[in-house]
Amino acid sequence: MWLEEAEELFKGYLPYYVLIVLPIFIIISPANPVLASHEFPVYRMQHFDLHGVAHGSRSAAVNLEARSLTGWSTSRHCVIVKLQDLTIDHFRNIRAKAGALLVVLPNDLSGLNSDEKQHLLLLEQAMLAQEISVPVYFAIWTGELETIVDEVSQNVATNDLSKSAAEAMFSSVAANGYQFVVSPGTTNVKQDVKVATIQGHLSGYSQEGKIPTLAVVAHYDSFGVAPNLSFGADSNGSGVVILLELARLFSNLYSDPKTRGKYNLVFLLTGGGKINYQGSKKWLEDQLDSLDGSIIQDASFVMCLDTLASGDSLYMHVSKPPKDGSPASLFFKELKAAADQFPTTTVDGVHKKINLADDILAWEHERYSIRRLPAFTLSTLKSHRELTRGTILDTRKNLNVEKLNQNTKVIAEALANFVYNTSLSEIFGGSLDVDKSYLEAWINYLTSQPRATQLLSNKDNALVTFLKDNFNKYLRDVKVSYAVPDKRDPDFLFYDVTKGVVNVYGVKPAIFDLVLTFAIILYLGTVYLFVQKFPALYSTACSLTSSKPKQN
């Protein structure tokens, strides 16, 4: 009786149960294709145009399988690699053939040794040397990300160590893979770009007629391989901090008619310094090409401040050596005299002609020298080619506040001795002295946020507003002007995707799906044949049972 009921069950309902229930068990089983999901913030590589030349990564969207540095092979793979393992040759190969690149950075870049820092500097230079078609992102190390990197690398190592083709096949089926998805949307040209330049001045006093002008200039933006990782502590946070301290010190002197200097002092915080000094270019055009009077037309000299906390040596970079007796020459002598107060500090001059054939100017003073204004740049770097001028390594932890404080004192004393035409060894002292805590507070604020030019190019940027408010405390006639790219022939263009989120899905490799498909087909085929042939199997079982001799 029960055999007949079983026969009816297999013939009538079991195939339907198999077709419905089996997929449910597959979905909820441990062999689920999606094993895990993670989210990590990622920072996109630079993407901008300058003078019609494309720079950085041109793509942003990623939906690819993750592979290690040694395990990837096609454009269907996103290469994930630790910073220390990525070489320039690896990068060039990935740029040409892979689908995307994700570089995992240490969570503390200041902890890198000197060789690792030099490696990163050279790698950044190579990555920014030319346009890149594939998406490139950077992520900060976390424990979960470390696990993913190690597992992706381990899958390749396991396959390589297999002793036979069968073992290699089993390893491929059993391995866990990862799918990287970044969906930032379309990278469009950023609209309403306004690169701000802030100006303010202190009026001098003289009974001799026309009062000459001195200008102090520093650009406030930073640069690195990724905009959202560019904090620019030394380049050019140090220049901005020194300018702000000079404005505070001289505003105290100029507030008293008895101590007002014989020079007008113009202070200028320029935007777009890292994109060929666009802020200075636009400001000079407004000043010198307009019909209104210019506050800088007859400047005795323009002093630009750039990267002033990386060493004890101060270099005065000029495009043309100043003549003996000229204001710039006299200031250089005052600078050397002020440096003598500190045994470790040296002052030297560096002469470099402006190469008009170059698309990118070396130093900011060249913008002013081109317009026939006497100008120079003070820096602790001897060459404009130093890679530390544009790197994500330039963080607060890597900045030496003691050197910043010392160089501020040297520059302040030299400028004061020049303005007041005195040889006093120390004008600033006591209550009127360089305030180290003021310098430190400003550098902490400036490095609390990335200052890449494209991040500061909106009209009501909070940093620009704060700098303007500080100018208003100490200076007069504070104004903000804007450099805006021309719509027909823009000098620069920015794009609106600088960061995103990568969704990491744990998945089985494609070969696992193939093997699972064959297993399901084999299983269903076996069940189908069993149901179809059940009467024959039942008859065979009955005949075998009935043929057994009865035992007494």
UniProtKB/TrEMBL annotation:
GO terms for biological process: regulation of signal transduction. It is found in: Endoplasmic reticulum membrane. This is Nicalin. One of its GO terms (cellular component) is endoplasmic reticulum membrane. Gene3D superfamilies: Zn peptidases. The chain crosses the membrane at residues 16-35, 510-531. It holds the Pfam family Peptidase_M28. Keywords: Endoplasmic reticulum, Glycoprotein, Membrane, Signal, Transmembrane, Transmembrane helix. Belongs to the nicastrin family. It comes from the Eukaryota. Residues 213-413 form the Peptidase M28 domain. It comes from Tribolium castaneum (Red flour beetle). It is a single-pass membrane protein.
